[in-house]
Amino acid sequence: MSDISIRVADWKHDNKALRQIRETVFVQEQAVPPEMEWDLEDEHAIHFLAMEGLYPVGTARLLDDGRIGRVAVLRDWRGLKVGSAIMQAVIYEAERRGLHSQVLSAQIQAIPFYERLGFSVASDEYLEAGIAHVDMTRHSTLDLTESVQTNNRHEVRFDSSDAAAQHIVELLSQARRTICIYTPDFEPPLYNRTDVEHAITRFLLAHPRNRLRVLIKDSGQAVRQSHRLINLARRLTSNFLIRKRSPDYPADDTAYVLVDDQGLLIRNNPQLYAGIAYYNARATVRLQQNRFDSTWQTSQSDPNVRSMLL
C-alpha cells in the first residue's frame, strides 16, 4: 500500500471519481437502488478519496453531525488496508473539526473491521437496502484541543505567535530527512526569523538528500519583502522547493509544519496563532503527510518565486 494516499475530495471537482467508486461497489455489486445511494447530503458532506497514484480506489464521506458513510473500496484493492487508511483519515478530520463522537451504519460482516477502529455496536440489527446493518458509535479518547503528556513533550498546546515560532524552531531542529511547510504566505511572525532560518540552513546542509518542500497560497508579499526563506531558497535551490497550491484543488483551511514521520505543528485557523505541536505522533503525522503529498501532486510552479530564483 506504499503508493496509496488519502485526501479530502471536492464533490464537484472529484464527482466523476466519487460516483464511479460508489456506483461500482454499492449499486452494481450490492444492488443498492440508485435512488437510495444518491442524496442531497453529498453536496454538503466532506468527501475522501483514496488514490493509487492518480487512480481513485476508495472513498467515504463525513457529515457535519459526525455521521460517517459511503465507505467503499474497489474490489481489487480490498485486503490491502485501504479501508483502514480511509477511516483513519475520516476520524482524524472529524476530531479536527471538534466532532469527537462519530456514528455509522455498518453492514454485519464489517462489524469486526469497525471495532478495530474503536467503534461499538449501538443498535439491534436492521435492514437497509435489503442488507443487514447495525448502528455503531465511537467516542474519542483524546480531545485534540487539549495538551496531552506535556511533560514528555508529546503534544503541547500554544496560543501566541512567539510560542508557535519557538515550537517551529524546536521541531525544525529535530528534523533529519524531510520538512514540509503548508502556509498561506510564509507568515513573517513565524518564518521570517533568524532562528528559523538558521535551523533550516543547518538541516539543508547536514545531508545532500535532505529536502524541504513548501506549499504556499500567495508568495507575492514574501518576495517583495525579501523574506529570509525566499532568499535561502535562492541559495539552496536543489533541495529547497517552493510551489503554489493549485486553485483548482480543494483548499485545506489549516497551516502546518511536518517534520520527518513524527513531528507536526498545526493551526486550524491560519489567521490565529493557536494550535498544537506534536513531537511524537506518527499516526497523526502520517495522515497529514498524505494530505500534503496529494496537494503537492496538483501544485504549480510559482512564477513569483521562479523569477526570484533565476
Please explain how this structure is put together.
This protein has two domains: 4-139, Gcn5-related N-acetyltransferase (GNAT) (Aminopeptidase, 3-Layer(aba) Sandwich); 150-309, Endonuclease, Chain A, CATH 3.30.870.10. 34% of the residues lie in helices and 28% in strands. The chain is built from eleven helices and 16 strands. Helix 3 (82-96) links the parallel strand 4 (67-73) and strand 5 (101-107). InterPro entries: Acyl_CoA_acyltransferase (IPR016181), Bact_Acetyltransf (IPR050832), DUF7931 (IPR057691), GNAT_dom (IPR000182). It holds the Pfam family Acetyltransf_10.
Please compute the radius of gyration using only Cα atoms.
21 Å
Q: Kindly identify the CATH topology of the largest domain.
A: Endonuclease, Chain A
Strand content: 25-35%
CATH architecture of the largest domain: 2-Layer Sandwich
- The total tally of domains equals 2
The ordered string of helix (H) and strand (E) elements is: EHHEEEHEHEEEEHEHHEHHEEEEHEH
Q: For the terminal residues, how far apart are their CA atoms?
A: 39 Å
Counting DSSP H or I runs of 4 or more residues, the number of helices is: 11
CATH superfamily of the largest domain: Endonuclease Chain A
Keywords: Acyltransferase, Transferase
Domain N-acetyltransferase: 4-141
Pfam family, one: Acetyltransf_10
Protein name: N-acetyltransferase domain-containing protein
Descriptive key words:
Aminopeptidase, Endonuclease, Chain A, eight-stranded mixed β-sheet, 310 residues, alpha+beta
List the helices and strands and how they pair.
Layout: E1 4-9, H1 15-29, H2 34-37, E2 46-52, E3 55-62, E4 67-73, H3 82-96, E5 101-107, H4 111-115, E6 120-121, E7 126-128, E8 131-139, E9 155-158, H5 161-174, E10 178-183, H6 188-191, H7 194-206, E11 211-216, H8 220-224, H9 228-235, E12 240-244, E13 255-259, E14 263-267, E15 275-278, H10 282-297, E16 300-301, H11 303-309
Parallel strand pairs: 4-5, 10-11, 11-12
Antiparallel strand pairs: 1-2, 2-3, 3-4, 5-8, 6-8, 7-8, 9-15, 10-13, 12-16, 13-14, 14-15
Helix pairs in contact: 5-7
Keywords: Acyltransferase, Transferase
Domain N-acetyltransferase: 4-141
Protein name: N-acetyltransferase domain-containing protein
